[in-house]
Amino acid sequence: MRQVDIVVIGGGIAGLSAAMRLARRARTVVIEREGALGYHSSGRSATFSHFGIGDAAVRGMTAASRPFFETPPDGFVERPLSFAKPAMFIATEELIGELRALESEMTRYTDTITRVSPAEMLEIVPVLKTGVGGIVEGLLDRSGRKLDSDLLLQACAKAVRAAGGEVVTEAGAIGLRREGERWIVDTAGETYSTATIVDAAGAWADEVAIAAGVRPLGLQPMRRTIIGFDPPEGLDVSAWPFTKTAGDEGFYMLPDAGRLLASPMDVTPTEPTDAQPEDFDIALAAWRVEEATTLEVGRIKAKWAGLRTFTADKVPTAGFAPDAPGFFWLAGQGGYGLQTAPAMALATEALLFGEAWPEELAAYGVRPDQIMPDRLFA
Ligand SMILES: Cc1cc2nc3c(=O)[nH]c(=O)nc-3n(C[C@H](O)[C@H](O)[C@H](O)COP(=O)(O)OP(=O)(O)OC[C@H]3O[C@@H](n4cnc5c(N)ncnc54)[C@H](O)[C@@H]3O)c2cc1C
């Protein structure tokens, strides 16, 4: 049996970004069930960071995470982890209220937001259907950033190893039990005895807790679909912003490696699973793009689905389980797990080692009680 200090269950962005900090201070092992890191949600996202999503805690963590993406620590990566790409939020007449609410929320975190008229929107994304019955108002946030999730995952794993930690794939936690003051974690190849478990198992985090006899958080995985298609011949879309309908219903679209990606912003409750795109959602994505633009989607060149896993209040959770010593939750990252990962990792380090709340988080109004699991059991 291997003696360690911390076993992180889950090799997605949550587990790896936290482990990178923890491994500098304690013997840390990340165990991932799949053969590749980021196989589930972390490898299937739109990899964008913007302020048009989540509540104050999520926006605060998004803001607190920005410096990491803009200026990563020395030696962390050899090429940029992100690049500037504006986010544009669009509204039909019925959605103007949503757009205004978004504007007042977002301006608390960035001063880079301007209202854009239909004519200005057309200069930015010439295919939008603007005017009566179409898109009438927009907001442009110049602070948006496109992230490189593969690079981020690999760089975090490298940093874990450089700090003396381990990252093991094909190592699902298949048995969890408490023996005295320790947790025993069985995987196919190794058994670990550890003081602390960090449950960063994404959509499976509740299942891991239940296996350990810990009260689940009540997490709900939601499927979301993305399609990829070619823009019309000769049209350079590379400078187009991440373009998203204001409110919860609609679509978003962004350029990626010469193609356009689009999502119908589907929110379908599912079991934890290897999510696959459904025909209906693929068709809905294409329909919503064609409804709001003059684009014809044509052949769908790529399609995938992934899970966004939410707590009841939709705020990511970090902190020790109130009912189980040494069991640390790092779950419920919803639709913002990449853009909030550096801040969540910072919070994890402080809460796990029982240290002062980081100033970087307090500066954006993020408090421990907003993200600790206790709130979900109150
Ligand atoms: C379509 C889509 C678009 C998105 N767009 C964005 C975006 O633009 N920006 C953004 O910030 N976020 C976005 N998200 C959300 C983001 O992808 C997630 O919040 C984030 O990836 C969650 O990371 P995670 O590490 O918690 O989960 P995961 O990446 O799923 O990692 C959890 C890991 O735990 C492993 N695991 C489970 N059980 C066990 C076990 N028993 N033993 C060992 N390992 C186990 C799994 O195999 C998995 O690899 C999007 C998500 C989707 C689906």
Helix-strand blueprint:
Layout lengths: L1 E8 L3 H10 L5 E4 L16 E2 L6 H15 L11 E3 L2 E6 L3 H11 L6 E4 L1 H7 L10 E7 L3 E3 L1 H14 L3 E3 L6 E5 L2 E5 L4 E9 L5 H7 L8 E10 L12 E4 L6 E5 L2 E5 L4 E2 L9 H14 L7 E11 L6 E4 L6 E5 L9 H12 L6 H4 L5 H4 L2 H4 L1
Parallel strand pairs: 1-2, 1-12, 2-9, 5-14, 12-20
Antiparallel strand pairs: 3-8, 4-8, 5-7, 6-7, 10-11, 11-12, 13-16, 13-17, 13-18, 14-15, 15-16, 19-20
Helix pairs in contact: 1-5, 1-8, 2-8
The site of flavin-adenine dinucleotide has 41 residues, from helix 1, strand 13 and strand 18.
Give a short summary of the structure.
With about 375 residues, this protein is α+β, with helices and mostly antiparallel strands. The protein is built from 11 helices and 20 strands. Flavin-adenine dinucleotide binds next to helix 1, strand 13 and strand 18.
